[in-house]
Amino acid sequence: MASAKPRSKIGKNARPDEKVETGRSRPPNRRGSPEAIEKRRVARVFNDILGGRGAAAHKLDGRTEKRRQRLLKELETNKARGTRELKPLDILQRVQELMDLGEPLSSIRKVTKVKKSPVAPEAIVGVVERLHRAYSFRPEVYRFVGIGEDVLRQAGVLGDATKRGRKRS
Fold first, then answer.
1. Across-strand partners of 85?
2. Within a 10 A sphere around the Cβ of 88, how many other Cβ atoms?
3. Which residues make beta-bridge pairs with 80?
4. What pTM did the predictor assign?
5. What string of DSSP letters covers the chain?
6. Which of 26, 34, 73, 151 has the highest CB neighbour count under 10 A?
């Protein structure tokens, strides 16, 4: 009779306490390291400055330009991605993002209807204060959902020194 060989479990079902050697080990990927990201950012700025594009050019790349156009279109039609109605917070976010991309307020005002607030100003002050602490929207953005300067002052978004016009003597 032939003797049976005992089976070993070293193949697929290796024990966790056993180390399995795998050829040579590769160094970790450094593309996502903070140093590599900072190098790429600095290189882009350096190339933009010396390449003649400078800060005054404000030329957006293709994806950013498409995003700017989409945001303007959504504000104009008051629909998100063509189907869902924009909520007031959506309007605030889109206007803030357009302003961050360098879009002037005048062009945003041309495509967006400034809404009147159906809520009494006293009732909304606390909510605006909490919203501003959470999102830090620019004060100009709140106009697009019908929130006036008096509510913004009471909520602490605007200081007393940011009044429009010249000081009276």
1. 79
2. 15
3. 84
4. 0.60
5. -PPPPPP---STT--TTS----SSPPPPP-TTSHHHHHHHHHHHHHHHHHTT-TTT--PPPHHHHHHHHHHHHHHHHTEETTTEEPPHHHHHHHHHHHHHTT--HHHHHHHSPPPPP-S-HHHHHHHHHHHHHHH---GGGGGGGT--HHHHHHHTSS-GGG-SSPPP-
6. 151
Rounded CA separation 156/143 (Å) = 15
In angstroms, rounded to a whole number, what is the distance separating the alpha carbons of residues 152 and 164? 14
Q: How many CB atoms lie within 10 A of CB 144?
A: 21
Residue among 30, 27, 147, 165 at smallest CA distance from 92: 147
Inter-residue contact 31 to 39 (CB < 8 Å): no
Please answer whether residues 156 and 129 qualify as being in contact, where contact means their C-beta atoms are separated by less than 8 angstroms. Answer: yes
- Where does residue 74 rank: exposed (0-12), middle (13-18), buried (19+ CB within 10 A)? buried
What tokens were used for 20? 């399995």
Each residue's pLDDT tens digit, 155-166: 999 876 445 555
> 57-88: per-residue pLDDT in tens?
556 678 888 999 999 999 999 999 878 999 99
